[in-house]
Fold this protein.
Amino acid sequence: MNRPLNLGRRLLLALPLAAAGCAGISAAPAPVLVGTEWRLESLGGRDVPASSQATLNFPESGRVAGNASCNRFFGTYTQTGQKISFSQMGSTRMACIGPAAEQEGRYLAALQKATGFEMEGGRLSIRLSGQEPPLRFSRVR
């Protein structure tokens, strides 16, 4: 009868140690976006023209800027793990016509729908709400 009690005590003593060991394990840290610059490769599931000037820059924590295709844009972003959202967006107002103007409108609207991102090697994908295909970028720096 004494033996099961000793085994029980050993298990009770081992549980806090096992729990403490598990508490130190954490998920991989979220990728750091600060200081990176990206060139838009795919919008709405379709490749953008190689001549496209659309970019996305993260110059400092919480700040975003870039070229929307014709105009420069700027704003803020919030990152929690691999979730991301953009807000307080503004842009210059140069006159744009044709495909560049259409792409710019779609790009800026897509950024407002951002929900998360993945960064792998020289690629960045920004997930959008709904069933829209993600924005895809290649790293510039």
About this structure: Confidence is low (pLDDT under 50) at residues 7-23. The first helix runs from residue 2 to 23.
